[in-house]
Design a protein that fits this description.
Elements lengths: L2 E10 L2 E9 L12 H11 L6 E2 L20 E5 L25 H14 L3 E5 L9 H10 L3 E6 L12 H7 L3 E5 L5 H8 L3 H14 L11 E5 L10 H16 L6 E3 L6 H9 L3 H10 L3 H4 L7 E4 L4 E3 L2 H5 L11 E2 L39
Length: about 375
């Protein structure tokens, strides 16, 4: 279990805010498996310096979010670690090149054992950049042997980093579905959110995936894109935005893809800290609550998805994982080796104010909008 350690207290916009660091019990050092040249290049290109964050947790605890319960578990979303080659402003994980938390082989095997025992049909891999975990390929190969659908949540740029040149072909050979983050189809907006040069690299990676068959008509290789708003606003209607993406990317770059997922930024971790530092947190929460959609509530992903962190502890969703909010009504984190699916169905889902991000407007989940009629 990770612990919160107070770092120091700063004044932001006239109020006092606790600055916290999150420290885990075990760490896998990235330099142990990444080629030194590749590791140094990532740090040099992004010059990532982790800054103290304003902890949004205290602003989320007093909640009036509706009571919801779990349905049948069908999707296992596994966070393979917080190491990433990018450090995006909207990131709810606070991932970056200097994060060292990575799932080890023992925990990967525990995930596989749970998945096979419970008959999970979808393994959803996320991070950080999940590809940077040294056991990423092993996990996929074992899951595919069990005929489990695998999703890789990819930032695209990782596919062009040193040491990952054969990753696209590996994913294609394993028929892994790719959910690729492209927060806008315009270069300036992407580079502003994700770092200079990331847009051109993302385009190059998409073109490479297209050449392998991803996103092509009648292909079994699925390529979906993810949109995130640039700031404290709700995403536009998903269907119209998808049409705009497809037209622009096709006309300008010859890129095709299957679907676009429009996701709402949740006010936690790095994005929550930015909102607090700019004095926009309260207004953003008011926006989310004012646009609460009961229809979206029915299809929130936490009803059929279980989130697993890099140490093997389980949560109702990836966002709760980042807030270290234990599963359901549990007072302490539960490890995947202690869990039975029979304990989940009908159980209360742990909620706080950030959950309004998944039910605002057209709704938001890891597969995009949850209410297509809004």
């Amino acid at each position: 279990m990770s612990k919160r350690f107070p770092c120091r207290c700063l004044k932001h916009g006239g109020f006092s805010a606790d600055i916290t660091l999150w420290v885990g019990k075990q760490f896998v050092i990235a330099t142990d498996f990444l080629p030194k040249k590749a590791y140094d290049k990532i740090h040099r290109n992004f010059a990532f310096q982790e800054k103290p964050m304003i902890d949004s947790y205290p602003y989320l605890t007093n909640t009036d979010f509706p009571h919801i319960t779990r349905d049948t578990l069908s999707i296992l979303q596994v966070n393979l670690g917080y190491l990433c080659n990018l450090s995006c402003t909207h990131c709810h994980v606070n991932a970056g090149p200097k994060r060292t938390e990575l799932m080890d082989k023992k925990t990967v095997d525990e995930v596989l054992a749970f998945m096979n025992k419970q008959g999970i049909h979808t393994l959803d891999l996320t991070g950080g950049a999940p590809e940077m975990n040294p056991h990423f390929r092993y996990l996929i190969e074992q899951a595919r042997l069990s005929h489990v659908k695998v999703i890789d949540r990819c930032n695209l740029v990782i596919l062009l980093e040193d040491g990952y040149a054969d990753m696209p072909e590996f994913l294609a050979n394993q028929q892994v579905e790719i959910v690729a983050s492209l927060p806008c189809y315009l270069q300036d907006n992407v580079d502003k959110q994700r770092g200079k040069g990331t847009f051109n690299k993302s385009i190059a990676a998409l073109q490479q995936l297209n050449r392998l068959g991803y996103g092509q008509p009648n292909s079994q290789l699925i390529l979906n894109l993810v949109f995130n708003p640039q700031g404290a606003s709700l995403p536009p209607p998903q269907q119209a935005l998808e049409q705009a993406y497809k037209q622009h990317l096709s006309e300008q770059y010859g890129i095709v893809f299957n679907q676009l997922y429009a996701l709402t930024n949740l006010p936690i971790q790095r994005f929550g800290s930015v909102l607090l530092s700019k004095g926009q947190f309260d207004d953003y929460m008011k926006l989310l609550k004012a646009n609460f959609n009961p229809a979206a509530l029915k299809n929130v992903m936490c009803r059929n998805t279980l989130s697993v962190d890099w140490q093997g502890f389980v949560y109702d969703c990836d966002f709760n994982q980042m807030l270290h909010l234990p599963l359901g009504a549990a007072k302490q984190p539960i490890h995947i080796t202690e869990l039975s699916e029979l304990k989940l169905r009908g159980q209360t889902i742990a909620t706080m104010q950030h959950c309004y991000g998944c039910t605002a407007g057209q709704g938001s989940s890891c597969t995009g909008a949850t209410d297509s009629h809004s």
